[in-house]
Amino acid sequence: QKEVEQNSGPLSVPEGAIASLNCTYSDRVSQSFFWYRQYSGKSPELIMSIYSNGDKEDGRFTAQLNKASQYVSLLIRDSQPSDSATYLCAVIVGPTGGGNKLTFGTGTQLKVEL
Amino acid sequence: GAVVSQHPSWVICKSGTSVKIECRSLDFQATTMFWYRQFPKQSLMLMATSNEGSKATYEQGVEKDKFLINHASLTLSTLTVTSAHPEDSSFYICSAVTADQPQHFGDGTRLSIL
Predict the structure, then answer these.
(1) Which of A18, A95, B87, B113 sits in a 20 to 30 Å window from A27, CA-based?
(2) Using the beta-carbon criterion (under 8 Å), do A88 and B43 form an inter-chain contact?
(3) Do A107 and B108 touch (CB under 8 A)?
(4) pLDDT, tens digit, for every residue of B71-81?
């Protein structure tokens, strides 16, 4: 089992819809979770970080964390064509303070269609 | 805030050449810097973790004599690809982190070995 798993997609949503991106992780004691956006040919850009169970909202983005289910998700409301990118889920595997070493999922490609 | 500069952004060179890539944290002191490699349509693969003033920690399968990492200050780490060959062609990305803050990535260096 991979440490961080994501559906590779592509996930296609119409403009204005909600895009839902999902990620599961295997290490139950992980405490820190991140979503990065990566445009083709570019480096990753931090979108959200989340450390506690529940929802965290930032503009059109909402991260959701459920540690009991070992599941983290990213919702993008009012999706725009500019949101089309690969979204990487990243986890600091193990307890916090483990040197900030990230383990990445393979990424989900999101396509927002006009 | 949290700006990471990476230079050069693009390198094309002949096989056998050594190439140095710089990673700088511009507005913060990075306790740790990370070096990643990304092949087309794949996720980021961590190559090594670099802490200022100490030897880098390499991931399994990464040749430390081929990928030399120097972290001379809290704002600068360098990766030197020695005697580069076409199979070393890839997208190399650094990131920097301080304390328990999320990793922020440089813009990446696209290395092409002819």
Answers:
(1) A18
(2) yes
(3) no
(4) 888 899 999 99
